[in-house]
Amino acid sequence: MTFEFDRDTAVRPVGNGRYDADLGTGWVVGGGVNGGYLLGIIGNAVRAELGLQAPTKGHVDPFSVSAHFLSAAVAGPAYVETRVLRSGGRFSTIEATLVQDVAGVPVPRIASHATFGDLDALDATRDAEAEQLGLVLKAPELAPVEDCLLASDAPPDFKKIAPLLDRFGTRLDPASALWAVGQPSRQGVIQGWFKLADDRPLDPIALLMVVDALPPVTFDLGWPGWAPTLELTAHVRAKPAPGWVIVRHRTRTVAGGLFEEDCEVWDSTGRLVAQSRQLALQPRS
Amino acid sequence: MTFEFDRDTAVRPVGNGRYDADLGTGWVVGGGVNGGYLLGIIGNAVRAELGLQAPTKGHVDPFSVSAHFLSAAVAGPAYVETRVLRSGGRFSTIEATLVQDVAGVPVPRIASHATFGDLDALDATRDAEAEQLGLVLKAPELAPVEDCLLASDAPPDFKKIAPLLDRFGTRLDPASALWAVGQPSRQGVIQGWFKLADDRPLDPIALLMVVDALPPVTFDLGWPGWAPTLELTAHVRAKPAPGWVIVRHRTRTVAGGLFEEDCEVWDSTGRLVAQSRQLALQPRS
């Protein structure tokens, strides 16, 4: 069996650092293709390019990926152009641009830089000390999975514009899901349990998708509509253990027509495995 | 009078999107040149390149700059290579790489993407509502400026390796400066008042420097030494009002040999004007 995420983020090397991909219709949400899913494709292209030769070969995991969103991608053919900027030592850094040809003209969708390394080589020397100091961010307390709201149970009208929901097994914590029934908490928080619908295990590349998988936190402010991301940076801090992850999205500063959205992801052992921040435009509605 | 920051971040166009610069010896700290200062140079090159023609000409302010640090820069000649990736609409995005030639070989120091726009065109429609919801991050309470510790009063031995300190008028809040006398609070917080030593007013480009101007938060954990940045993303949220700014650095997750450091900057009116996050390596010492 091939999992949806693997099938739809597969890349094909065509030489000179270019990787072809097909953006699946299943990852569409509103007028575009989900940004996290696109980061998964970029992650696969980067990993493939770094895997071609020593000394970058051992740098298989994303540590930090920063992405500027230039235009909305559409389902269909796309490609990632990669260029290694640094190799050797513990990390490689690569430039990766996701492009779609529109009427024969290459249109960049996402410009990114990615720093990759080996998450199996993390240095745990000071972990116990940091834990004792309280410098390890803890997951929020959520209602049990079975009491949370299955996001893919959204009304058919909504799902028609968001086939993306069927890819995910997202279970939203009721306290931060009341916007779905017209009673947003207005705390600026959306959190819940997350897995892929077909139970594809989450790994470091998939975490690049997880940090952009929940609805924008502006839904919880009572502002539905698309909140276009200007920039998103994701840091992967550890390999996730098997099972559900907990995801929290939060904004703390809504100003000037923009807002920042911080996301944290904890694995089933309670370990922080990824964090991201995006700067996005407030929805127009 | 020319201010130090303007003199030392000046760039000279040499065509094809390239801008020459000189990295000043005054901005050296430890074995390298301060990253925030280098972001100021990158910011000036980006602004100059965008200013060359419509439609990017009005995009004079950084909204989001993400930077991957590839190798340690040294004082001396450097250049920024720029390439516009998106123009038109409300924002321009540009790729900008800071390079130094070493024995005739170009060595990239920082790979960045910058999204610029016009901070005078922010949409304040929902600002009052967000304020009412408490979704505007507030500055910490600090001791008055005169009761804070002037960082440039550090011992001569320390200053010899950190001429950078003389560029700044940083006044550290006593509660987060006790590491200087061997009693780190171990809260993972360093905060204080900030201005440039020669009172050069802070503007959006200078804020790119401010987010990396305080000592690394690991000093407050009792871990002196250089904490190499892998990646730093800065978001400028508003133009700062004249006067001192308040800067807070904080880490919340120290793990696996790395830590993230969040920085927020508030202007003299209490408005959040910039925020950044960097992923850095723990010092070796």
Describe this structure in words.
The structure is a homodimer of 285-residue chains. Chain A has helices at 4-9, 35-50, 127-132, 156-160, 204-210; strands at 12-15, 18-23, 28-29, 32-33, 61-69, 76-86, 92-102, 105-117, 149-150, 171-172, 189-194, 229-236, 245-250, 254-255, 258-266, 272-281. Chain A is globular and about 55 Å long. Chain A has two domains: 1-118, Porin, CATH 2.40.160; 130-285, Beta Barrel (Porin). In chain A, 51% of the residues are buried. In chain A, strands 1, 2, 5, 6, 7, 8, 9, 10, 11, 12, 13, 14, 15 and 16 form a 14-stranded antiparallel sheet that branches. The first copy, chain A, has five helices and 16 strands. Chain A starts with a helix and ends with a strand. In chain A, helix 2 (35-50) runs antiparallel to helix 5. The longest helix of chain A has 16 residues, at 35-50. By secondary structure, chain A is mainly β. In chain A, strand 3 (28-29) and strand 4 form a beta hairpin. At the A-B interface, strand 5, strand 7, strand 8, strand 12 and strand 14 of A face strand 5, strand 7, strand 8, strand 12 and strand 14 of B.
